[in-house]
Amino acid sequence: MDHNIAVGHSLGASFVLYSLCEKPNLFQNYIAISPNLAYDNEKIAKALIDFDYKKLKNKPSST
After folding, report:
1. What pLDDT, in 10s, does the model give residues 3-61?
2. More confident residue, 31 or 63
3. I need a labelling partner for 50 at 20 to 30 A (CA). Which of 16, 38, 41, 59 fits?
4. Are 44 and 37 in contact (CB under 8 A)?
5. Predicted pLDDT at 3
6. What are phi and psi of 29, to 5 degrees?
7. Distance between CA 39 and CA 1 in Å, rounded?
8. How confident is the model at residue 56, as a pLDDT?
9. Angle of the 39-50 helix axis to the 11-22 helix axis, nearest 10
10. φ and ψ of 56, to 5 deg
11. What is the pTM (predicted TM-score) of this model?
């Protein structure tokens, strides 16, 4: 089974969260460790608050 995981720390974690908001199904899992949510006037933090989590697609397991 193919599984894409985005992992990042600090600014890399900010990128992981940005990609979640912009392309929510690009990865199956997102791990953001200590993201900088204050970046660009809290743009990512605000995007996460407004994010529609229904956009995430659950894929059934093939086991």
Report:
1. 899 999 999 999 999 999 999 999 999 999 999 999 889 999 999 999 999 988 865 55
2. 31
3. 59
4. yes
5. 85
6. -140, 145
7. 35
8. 86
9. 40
10. -75, 130
11. 0.81
The token pair that represents 35 in the structure block: 């993201």
Look up residue 28 and give its DSSP letter. S
> Residue 45: which of 27, 19, 26, 18 has the closest Cα?
18
**How many other β-carbons are positioned within 10 Å of the β-carbon of residue 46?**
13
- Please compute, for residue 20, the number of CA atoms within 13 A of its CA located in the half-sphere on the CB side: 27
Domain ranges in the chain?
5-55
H-helix or E-strand spanning residue 6? strand 5-9
Phi first, then psi: give them for residue 31, nearest 5 degrees.
-125, 115
